[in-house]
Amino acid sequence: MSQSLQLYINNQTPNVFFKGEGKKHGRSNQMKLLVKEKPKATMMSQHAAVPTEIPPHWYNIIADLPIKPPPPLHPKTFQPLHPQDLSHLFPDELIKQETTNERFILIPDEVVDIYRLWRPTPLLRAKRLEKLLDTPARIYYKYEGVSPAGSHKPNTAVPQVWYNAQQGVKNIVTETGAGQWGSSLAFATSLFGLNCEVWQVRASYDQKPYRKLMMQTWGATVHPSPSDITESGRRILEMDPSSPGSLGIAISEAVEVAANNEDTKYCLGSVLNHVLLHQTVIGEECIQQMEALGETPDVIIGCTGGGSNFAGLCFPFIREKLKGKINPVIRAVEPTACPSLTRGVYAYDYGDTAQLTPLMKMHTLGHDFIPDPIHSGGLRYHGMAPLISHIYELGFMEAIAIPQIECFQGAIQFARSEGLIPAPEPTHAIAAAIREALHCKESGESKVILMAMCGHGHFDLPAYEKYLQGAMVDLSFSEDKIQASLANVPHMS
Ligand SMILES: Cc1ncc(COP(=O)(O)O)c(C=O)c1O
User: Fold this and answer.
1) Taking every annotated instance into account, which residue ranges of this chain make up the domain Tryptophan synthase beta chain-like PALP (predicted)?
2) Fold of 120-151+273-468
3) Is 334 helix (H, G, I), strand (E, B) or coil?
C-alpha cells in the first residue's frame, strides 16, 4: 500500500468513530472530543495531507469584496429582486444565504454529519505526473471524487435538501446536464426522505444510462429534457422534435414545475451565490492542508461550467490573497466550445432558455445558446456564476479556454501516472496544469500548482473510448452562432 493511501485511510478512521455524535452532544462537544482525541493531528507527507476536521463554516466572499456584485433583476420588471420574489423556488434560509453579507456561515451539525461520509477529502501531490512531465513544478490536486455521487456536487446538494426539509418541503425538482448534479441531489433527497424529480438533458439521458440508473437507485424520477410534461419543453419540441436539449432548457422545465406547484421547490447545482458558498468547504479544508504541508500555491486552477467547484476551491484562497498573505494566479478553464468567460459578454441575461429565472449580471453567450455536444456535459452552460463574473471583472482571476482533445490527452497522462480516471470536466484543469508545468520545465521555475479534481469519470468511459479510438473531434467554435445568440441578450437601458 502506498504511503499516501495509508495516510488517507488512517486519517479517515477517527471520523467514522465520531459519526452521529454531533446529534447526541451538539457541535461544541463534538469538536471538543475531536480536539481531545486528536489534537490538530493533521497527518502529512510529501505526498498527501488530510485534515482531521471539517471546517465549521462556509465562506462568503461577498463580505470581503471591495465592490459588491450587481443585484439580480426581476425577469418581468427588470427591477432589483426582492427576497420574497424567490420564495416560490427556494426555502427562506437559502434565500438568506443568497443575499447575505456575513463572512462565515456555520455549517449545520446534521450536514457536517453527512459530510463525514466523504469529507475531509484528500489533497494529493501528483509526483508521478511531475516525473512523467519532467517538470520542476510541484502539482497538487484536491480530489472530490470520493463523495457517494463521485463529484463535488453533494457538498451543496446535502445542505440544500436539508434546508428544504427543515421548512417542511416534500418535493424537489431540478435539471441535470452530465447527470452528476442530478445524482447528487437524488442521493441527498434519499437521505432526508424527500421526493426528487430530475430533467436530464436529452443528449446525456441517451448517452449516460448509468447516471440515470444511479438517480433511480436513489429513488428519483428522471425525465429527458425537453419533455412534453412542461410548457417550456413542449415549445422546444414543436420547433425541433429531436432537440438534444441544453442545461438552459432543462432549468426552464424544472423552474416551471416548481413555480406552478405549491408543495415543490427547485434546487440548482451551480451558478447561484448559495451554491458557491456551500462549495467553499473544499477551499477551507485545502488551506489547512497546504499549510500543514508547508506549501503555498503559486497557481490555482479549476474548470468552470457554472463555476461552483472552481469557486469552492478558489474563494478562500482569494480571501487570503485580498489580505495580502499570498499572491497566487487564479485561473479558470473552460471548453472552447462553450467559452462564456473568454468569449461571452458581461451583461444581464436569463439563467434559462424560457426566460423564467431572474436576470443575472454575468458572462454569457446568450440564454438560447446551445453548445455543441462536447463530452464535458457539465461545462455546457451559456453563463457563468455572477459572483465569478464579478470577480473576473475586478481582475482577481483570469480565464482560458482549452479544446477537448488536449484535455483528454492530459487525462490519459494523469490516469496512467496517478491512477485516477477523471471526469471529462476536470480534464480541463488537468490540461491547464500540464501547460503550466511544461512552462516551468522551460523556465526552470519550481512553482506550486494546485488544481481542483472535482470528480471521477467512471460513468464517462464512452468519452474515453472515443478518444482512445482516435474518433474524438475538436468541435469548431462558431462566431456566427455566438453572435446570433448574443443578439437575444436583453438590452438594458
Ligand atoms: C464533475 C463535474 N465537474 C464540474 C462541473 C461543472 O460545474 P461547476 O462549474 O459548477 O463546478 C460539473 C457539472 O455538472 C461536474 O459534474
Assistant:
1) 117-455
2) Rossmann fold (3.40.50)
3) strand
